[in-house]
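[Backbone geometry]
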Amino acid sequence: MNNTMLGDAYVDVLKDVDPRYFHAQDQRPLGSKGLSGIFLTSVSDQYGSAKNRVMVVGCETAGWEPLQKGEVFVSLEHLVAKTIAKHRTFFEKRLSQPLKDRGKTFHNFTRELASVTGRDGLVYSNLFCFDWAGKSPIGCPEFDFVKDLSRKLLHRQIEVLQPEVIVFANGIASASYRREFFPSGDDGRISNPRSHPEIIKAHYLWEFVLDGNIRCFRVHHPSARSKQAAVGRRAALSMLASALN
């Protein structure tokens, strides 16, 4: 369970994708007005031996370019390695910043998670592997492609990394796509749904089991500033801390 294994899995998923999506921004169709560079998750060198393996799933980046302007796409393997390296540097830097970093609310939440789970086994992923013009890809002309590829990549990440817990903090706007990626029902991957009405409405905090053994929490995206959303996130952190201890 390391970055080499992840890289091999990414290459397998991406091998049939049109390489025009992998060029540097100034060489892609529509440039800064189109899709971002591809977002691929990394893990720490200590992930395989980490005490706790916890994944947090956001929505999408706000600008993500693994290749520099003018840099040439050499091969899929090279791109994957560059993207994993960028993610690793980015996330390590975010985790090392002060707990309350004004304006970066999602990574305030990942730092709070790290204080509960430890850093070695914490994985930062996103529901969508591209953003569109620095914003959500939902509604963009290529969204069917984005959605399909994002689902495949997230499924493979979970398969390779085998997290014990997943915190879905991707937000309400993309909740329907999370349900599409991980369906419930007799033929679905979700079981044992549970709310906590003694704490907050299910809208703000919900949990379930994925694939029979991965405990999952669904909370509002950390940018949701309502009191109820904050209560739901704090409760998820508290329950996670109790479970891990």
Notes: The mean pLDDT is 93. The beta strands are 54-58, 122-126, 165-168, 190-195, 205-210, 214-219.
